[in-house]
Amino acid sequence: MNKNLRKAVIAGNWKMNMDRKGAEKLINELKPIAADKTCGVVICVPYTDLETALRLTEGTNIAVGAENCHFKKSGAFTGEIAADMLKEMGVEYVIIGHSERRQYFAETDLTVNRRVKAALAAGLKVILCVGEMLSEREDGITEDVVELQTVAAFTGISAEDAKNVIIAYEPVWAIGTGKTATAEQAEEVCAFIRGVVAKRYDQAIADGMTIQYGGSMNEKNAAELLAKENIDGGLIGGASLVAEKFGVLLAEASK
Ligand code: PEP
Questions:
Q1: Global confidence as pTM
Q2: Cβ–Cβ contacts within 10 Å for residue 1, how many?
Q3: Tens of pLDDT along 202-251?
Q4: Residue 248 lies in a domain
Q5: Ligand 1 residue neighbourhood (C-beta within 6 Å)
Q6: Residue 145 maps to which CATH number?
Q7: 107 included as an active-site residue
Q8: Which residue's CA lies nearest to atom 2 of ligand 1?
C-alpha cells in the first residue's frame, strides 16, 4: 500500500463562476471549514478573483490556483495570461489541459505540453487534466487516450519537475453531468496512469505523485472514491462552489 506516500489534495475548479463579492463570501465561509483539515486544499479561481483569493487566504492552509496560463512569457497574445504573471502575484497552482479547454478552446496535447513546461519553469505547480470522451470509453480506448495525453504532457519534463505535477483523471462524460465514474472505474484508470508515470520516470516518482479523480465528485460519493488506493483527492467543479459541500470532501480526504 503506497497511499501514505503521497498527499491527498482537494482542488476546487470554480470555472467561470463567482464575481468578487461571491468569491469573498465563499472564501470566508471556507476558511474555518478548511482550517483543521490535513489534506491539501486548493481553490482554482477565475483570473479576476485571484487577487481577492490571495488576499483572503493569506496565512491560511488554502492555496490559490489559476485555471489556465499561456506558454509564452510575454508578447502579442491578446487576452492571455503568462505563467510568470501568475507566479508574480503569488499564485501557487495552475490547471492545465482541462477538458473544457480541450473541447472549446482548441487545446491540444502539444499546447498542453507547452503550457506545462511554461508553468513549471515559472515555479508554479500544475494540475494536469487527462481523460477520455464517452465515445472513446465505448470504443474501449480509454487507456490509449489517457496514456497518450499523459506521455505528451510530460514530454521534455525532468523527473525533478514532474514532482510538481498533480494529475487529475477526469472522464469527460462525468464532468458537470452528475454522472460519476464508479469508484472501480476511477481506481482502474488512476492506477493505469500511475503505471504510465512509472514507465516514463520510475516507481518512486509514480508512488509519490498525487493522482486525483474529477467528474461530479460530491459530498455523497467522495468517501467511496477517496478510499481507493490510487485516488489521492479530487478536482472538484460544482461542489467546490458551496462551502459546506466542499468541506465534506476536505474532511473525507483528510481521514
Ligand atoms: C471539473 O471542472 O474539473 C469537474 C470535475 O467538474 P464537476 O465536479 O462539476 O463535474
A1: 0.98
A2: 5
A3: 999 999 999 999 999 999 999 999 999 999 999 999 999 999 999 999 99
A4: no
A5: 13, 15, 170, 175-176, 214-217, 235-239
A6: 3.20.20.70
A7: no
A8: 237
Residue 217 CA, ligand 1 centroid: distance in Å: 7
Going by pLDDT thresholds of 50, 70 and 90, the confidence category of residue 180 is confident
Residue 238 is predicted with a pLDDT of: 96
Give the DSSP H/E element, type plus range, for residue 4: none
Residue 252 lies in a domain: no
Q: Whose CA is nearest to atom 7 of ligand 1?
A: 237
Q: Rounded to the nearest whole angstrom, what is the distance from the C-alpha of residue 237 to the centroid of ligand 1? A: 3
Q: Answer yes or no: is 4 within a domain.
A: no
Beta bridge partners of 155: none
Atom of ligand 1 nearest to the CA of 175: 10
What mean pLDDT is predicted for residues 47-51? 98
Question: For residue 1, what pLDDT band results from cuts at 50, 70 and 90?
Answer: low
Total domains in the fold of the chain = 1
- Measured in Å, residue 99 CA sits from the centre of ligand 1 at 10
CA atoms within 13 A on the CB side of 132: 21
Nearest CA, atom 4, ligand 1: 237
Query: Would 249 be classed as within a structural domain?
Result: no
Cβ distance 203 to 247 under 8 Å? no
Q: Which domain holds residue 210?
A: 9-238
Give a three-class secondary structure readout of 205-247: HHHHCCEEEECCCCCCCHHHHHCCCCCCEEEECHHHHCHHHHH
Ligand 1, residue 99: give the atom nearest the CA. 3
